[in-house]
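Let us begin with a simple case.
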Amino acid sequence: MEYRLTAMGRDLFPVMIALRQFGERHLFGPGEEHSVLVGREKGLSVHLDIRTQDGRTIGPDDTVLLKIPEEE
């Protein structure tokens, strides 16, 4: 029997990819071997980018948090 993700599990997928990329970037030594997440169809490695509505890739210096105004 194959495990099937729930809707909640599918929504968590980008979070897991982000954590994986963080670990690959910061927790392995140079040249240290580790598993690679690849796309099923072509076998290409998976990378997560943060994008705006118009498709531009952005980073932490390109964002600002807009707070909800307090009710009076």
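The second case is a distinct protein. As before, the sequence precedes its structure tokens.
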Amino acid sequence: MKVFDKIKKIIFPHHILGYAISYLLLIVFGAFLLSLPISLQAGQSISIVDALFTAASAVSVTGLTTIVVGDVFSRFGLIVLLLIIQIGGIGLMFAIVFFWLVIKKKIGFTERNMIMTDQNQFSRSGMVKLVRNVLIMFFWIELIGFLIIAHYLYFMDYFTYQESLMQGIFLTVSLTANAGFDIAPNGDSFQMFANDYFMQTMAIILMFMGSIGFWVLSEVKEYFHAKKRKLPFKFSFFVKMIVTLHLFFIALGALIIFVFEFGGFLADKNLIESIYYSFFMSVTTRNAGFSTMDVNDFSSATSMIIMILMFIGASPNSYGGGIRTTSIVVIFLSIKAYALGKQHVVFNNRKINQEIISKAYIAFVSALTIVFTGIILISLIEELSLHMIMFEVTSAFGTTGLSMGITSSLHTMSKVILVLIMFIGRLGILALVMMIRPSNVTKISKQNYPEENIIVG
């Protein structure tokens, strides 16, 4: 046990670095498993880079892939990929805590710190309760989703019963995890269900559940528990805020896509088709990555809107990525407050802490830096249009998985760059910044310096 503790201290010297290394090890181990002969179909092979790319995409629940997973991986390989998606989606720390809860192991200070970093929380209190509530909620969401989708696929004669079960479990986990992976014939994502509104509705519900935020699901569970015992219950301000923002961005995205494509892609579609295409695409940009059509069919203006939505991403503490809906709203409110000469940034009659505002700007600027750096580097390597590269990089950072079809044709170095961007997208910008934060930050913050005015803007 002492030897194990020493190894643990060497590999995980700090909870934030340990958090990053844990995900890195999961990617490497996942790539190793996916490279095994038992994971591949007869006559198929996979390069080290493609295995790492697939594992990184699964851990970060992005969905970008350089291969058609349904054609390359065997049934065993698909189960491995599904497990990686599930662990990557709920969070490695959640999976570890679940294991500890099962074996009744005490969850220590370091582990609670790693959960706090994984979920971008302010304190360690309530972490175990959050994990328990979220795992219970997702167990029921995925079980019900699987039973409905699998049997619907069978009774509607999409697949045989055995294949319907496999398609059902894979789609349910991938949709809920906002992963974007599918094992549909020819790997055409959700295009085979472009006219099946029941499947699209099920997909929208599962994608919404996965991107709405873990705290929302936890409080919903607490709500039902309180109702069962006939106890009073009130949703927190934070949960009300992120649900409102989440619904707002979905509605706004769907409206913009509908208006922009009304005379374009949607020109020959009836009203129901147009609404579903617009709404599905808006929901999937929350970081799901599924699509009912080829995104190349959209105009350049619509593609830019989709990039912005992917960059913003999902709600905080969810399966999704991006800079998060709350960050962009806090930035907008701070600009509004400054323009109106107000001293405080206020949302719904609540003052927002200055540190939160600073974190929002740090996330925004750091994300822009990473995305533009990736775009420039890949532009130096690939002879592709800048628009396609921007779309691919933004999708990788936002862990969305939508693509204009260039992923498989990229050079090895471009794939490595995308792996790094997906990895950063999964870790989160703030966690990345905190990795280089000095341990004596409290002492540094107390240092005083002469004030100087600098002209900006």
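The longest strand covers residues 346-347. The beta strands are 346-347, 350-351.
Keep these points in mind for the review questions at the end of the chapter.
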